[in-house]
Amino acid sequence: RCRCTGRAVAIKRIKRFLTDPKRLRAEIAVLRRVKQHPNIVELIDVFETTREVHLVLELCTGGELFERLAEKGAYSEADCVRHVRDMAKAVEYLHECGIVHRDLKPENILLSTPDDQEAVVKVADFGLAKVFTGTSLKTKCGTWGYSAPEMISGSGSTFGYDDKVDSWSLGTILYILLCGYHPFDPEGERSDNEMIASIKACSFDFDDDGWTTISDGAKDLVKHLLVLDPDDRFSMEQVLEHPWITGSS
């Protein structure tokens, strides 16, 4: 709890000897740059010692979206719409600021409160975020299960990607929210190589019985996010304009 304001906060303790200092500085710089958005975890302050760096962050008592998924299995479409809208607003703002997150996944999405009806989504963990200046990004990073095909399949002088990798990650999260399992590993038994092959082939479907009760609008948004060609993949602006998100479907 902050001694000056009495506000309850979260403290992220980072040991210097376990962390790349350049990456840590980049994360702090990004958090300071985007601290005013309601769907991004706020960096309140930074304290440093010789051994540790302490990030004072907004407290999100609802925990990780990953933990909530493990408890619930899947979300109602109404809750999915709210959460995906919040995520898209946050990522749209990042992209407007010239930042690509590069590691969107349920573990990096926090909920402001434990109440699903009241919870506001907060995008967190900017350790892999990168300022995007228009030149293709080259670094392979992130979590395989949520990485776009172009992020894991390219090499050499032709390899590169842009902010549309975040759109792919959002599509993967949306799919999981709707049905409770991963689009490229439905049984949870595939190896990394098998999952990567499935991602490269964009091999997913809506064949499971659970999808029969899910609206065509929700499926349509998934199909516009999990697209092999990044040029054909929805931007965050298009996500926010989709009828399923706006309620006009």
Automatic annotation (TrEMBL):
Domain of life according to the entry: Eukaryota
Alphabetical keyword list: ATP-binding, Nucleotide-binding
Any single biological process term in GO: intracellular signal transduction
Keyword check for ATP-binding: yes
Domain Protein kinase stretches: 1-245
PROSITE patterns xref list: PROTEIN_KINASE_DOM, PROTEIN_KINASE_ST
Single GO molecular function: calcium/calmodulin-dependent protein kinase activity
Pfam families hit by this protein: Pkinase (PF00069)
SUPFAM superfamilies with a match to the protein in the record: Protein kinase-like (PK-like)
KW ATP-binding (keyword) present: yes
Cellular component aspect of the GO annotation: cytoplasm; nucleus
Family matches, as Gene3D superfamilies: Phosphorylase Kinase, domain 1, Transferase(Phosphotransferase) domain 1
PANTHER family on file: SERINE/THREONINE-PROTEIN KINASE
This protein's name: Protein kinase domain-containing protein
Species: Phytophthora ramorum
